[in-house]
Amino acid sequence: MFKGFFFICSFLVLGACAAYNPESEYDLVTPARLQDVSLTESTYPDDMVQRGKYLAGLLACGTCHTDGALVGEPDADRVYGGSGVGIAYTSPFDGKNPGILYPANITADLETGIGRWSDTEVVRAIRTGINNHGRRQISVMPWPGYTQIVDEDAFAIVAFLRSLKTVRHSVPKNVMPGENHSAAFVHFGIYRSKK
Fold first, then answer.
1. Which of 77, 126, 130, 188 ranks highest by number of CB atoms within 10 Å?
2. Residue 180 above 80 pLDDT?
3. Tens of pLDDT along 19-63?
4. How far apart, in whole angstroms, are the C-alpha atoms of residue 2 and residue 121?
5. Cβ pair 103, 114 in contact under 8 A
6. Which residues have a Cβ under 8 Å from the Cβ of 6 and sit 6 or more positions away?
7. Which helix (H) or strand (E) holds 88?
8. Quick one: which of 70, 88, 59 has its CA closest to 32?
9. What does pTM read for this prediction?
10. What is the rounded CA–CA span in Å between residue 87 and residue 71?
11. How many Cα atoms are found within 13 Å in the side-chain-facing hemisphere of 130?
12. Given this model, what pLDDT does residue 170 score?
């Protein structure tokens, strides 16, 4: 009798565990890297802009900061113009409502991008994650890996960003852990929410 009870309880517990699969709420996706980025005329030297373009490509900045690139479908009209698909910085596998960051518009648009930022403020954001208001953002940008970028390379990235076509695009508001979200997100750049 005891063995039968143990078997039934084990079956119920294991069955309950197997029934919930958090991955069932997400699609597996492959982020896209931007191959060719068109530039506008620039006041920066061309060799500096090309060096910045190379570095931004190497660091895959456009994968996060271009709408749709996180889910493998970059929007050619919003290159570096911020993403409507966010990145969960807490685990959606631990709860239904993770914290989500929506990568910013880093084109020179004055209202929705970095057009009002000084070159030094952009470099500080790259190296420290601190925005032009002196606040560190809840960030998934790997700025700790960029702290040692030399001035020449950091300012080359700025020259490249300033040479991009200006995109007017406001990204969704970041979501704090536990808050409801209304825009799509990915988890570690691999899983996209089905909502």
1. 126
2. yes
3. 545 566 677 777 787 777 878 888 999 999 999 999 999 999 999
4. 70
5. no
6. none
7. strand 86-88
8. 70
9. 0.79
10. 11
11. 10
12. 95
